[in-house]
Amino acid sequence: MANHLHKGDLPASLSFGASVAVDSETMGLNTHRDRLCVVQLSGGDGHAHIVQLAQGYDAPNLKRLLADPKVLKIFHFARFDIAAFQHWLGVETTPVYCTKVASRLARTFTDRHGLKDLARDLLGLDLSKQQQSSDWGADTLSKEQLDYAAADVLYLHALKEKLDVMLAREGRAHLAQACFQFLPARAALDLAGWPEIDILAHA
Fold first, then answer.
1. Domains and CATH numbers, the chain
2. Rounded to an integer, what distance in angstroms lies between the CA atom of residue 2 and that of residue 127?
3. For residue 166, what are the contacts with CB-CB under 8 A and spacing of at least 6?
4. 63 pLDDT above the threshold of 70
5. Residue 20 — φ and ψ, nearest 5°?
6. How far are the Cα atoms of 10, 57, 67, 176 from residue 96, in angstroms, in the given order?
7. How far apart are CA 183 and CA 140, in angstroms?
């Protein structure tokens, strides 16, 4: 496994094929306030590409990939990352797959659907979350930060494979796909002021 650090944008020549695992790191959890600092990607080949974004970034190659209708973007908790990309990069990410949503639909025997839980239960891996709250806006990222960022995308393809089998077994693959298609709209609702409200609720 190798981590490739890119300053400012992805190389224009970089290709990920039909699907790419994606995650992001921000200065906090308030999307309007806390800027997007890092975007990490993996083609499922054991390599992680980490884009470190400076303030005032544009990143046209990254934006092109996120919006490419021919490339499936695989996330864990896509709702947050999609909103960050909408707000800070001005791009709608599509099409998408979310391992957290898939787990909630397929693994109804548990209420533990975090990435660490999925990696342990489905892949037998113990992922460290130690760097989750570190300073992602720093000029220089530490090796520990880079390793943490990479781990968040390196295993998403394998998790998707496992979850797809479970979704098909339980007859919920079509329901999962409908949820994935709604995620950009759910992210837009978050940004527009309805983050904690179920817009479809009766009351």
1. 2-179 (3.30.420.10)
2. 16
3. 102, 106, 107
4. yes
5. -145, 135
6. 19, 23, 10, 11
7. 32
